[in-house]
Amino acid sequence: MPLQQDLVDEIEVLLRYNLDTTQEGIKVHHTAREELIEAAKRLHNKGLVDSEDGGYLTDLGHEAAEHTQAALRILSSE
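The structure assignment produced for this chain is given below.
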């Protein structure tokens, strides 16, 4: 199943979160690539982040980011 670019952009946003703390969010600035701005909005609409410009991960978002970051570590290893 090929990944659509929208999902790749959402994954890119999720990879930016620091999972070591729940006290640190992100902000997707208006100067970011339009694709990332839209990805943050979609993640908000899906209930994964608490703000349209990123913010903090929700519980579901934290779980999604954990799985996303773990998959990247596994796939990046040699």
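Interim note for the steering committee: The first strand starts at residue 26 and ends at 27. Helices lie at 5-15, 34-45, 59-76.
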